[in-house]
Amino acid sequence: MSEPAVSDNSPTLPWGKKVTSEFKAKVLQISADIGCQADHLMAAMAFESGETFSPSVKNAAGSGATGLIQFMASTATLLGTSTAELAKMTAETQLDYVAKYFRPYKGKLKTIEDVYMAILYPAAIGKPNEHVLFERPAKAYEQNKGLDANGDGKVTKGEAASRVRAKLAKGQQFAG
User: Fold this and answer.
1) Is the pLDDT of residue 6 over 50?
2) CATH of the domain spanning 16-169
């Protein structure tokens, strides 16, 4: 007779096989505290960290942003740290800064789009998915043109968040 599979009794989340039980527990706590779905927060961190969930991952475009939600240097300073310090942390410790970052948006993050807007463009939280974030010609558009799914020279909230929504779906393969 074979032995039953050992369970660590940790919650099941998309991308959960890529993180520790402590990480998952913290994500559930943060999500409960700020009023968003834990799945949405996991998908946003998967997108921002290139599916690594690494506290030291750097922005591929060279902005200097670092970590689970790609903290910019100015944001890190406002949170009482630096991107260099954030990069040295464990993922579980960096989640404390993720929580601190999201706290001002408590109760406003009803959709996956709004969770992602808290990271990318907070002014769009609560706006419809058709809301235009960036439009050509503008530096902000050029920096984010990869999010312009239909190539019309405008990046809408829905287009920007579609990649995060795709990470939510993909993350089900790694649910744990």
Assistant:
1) no
2) 1.10.530.10
- Say how many residues make up the chain: 176
| Contact (CB, 8 A) for 73 and 85 | no
The pTM is what? 0.90
Question: Could you tell me the sign of the dihedral formed by the alpha carbons of 69, 75, 76, 78, in that order?
Answer: negative
Residue 119 contacts residue 70 (beta carbons within 8 Å): yes
Which residues, 6+ apart, have CB-to-CB distance to 74 below 8 Å? none
Query: What is the C-alpha to C-alpha distance for residues 73 and 86, in angstroms, rounded to an integer?
Result: 10
Instruction: Tell me the average pLDDT across 138-165.
Output: 93
φ/ψ (deg, to 5) at 97: -75, -30
Rounded (10°) angle between helices 21-34 and 38-48: 120
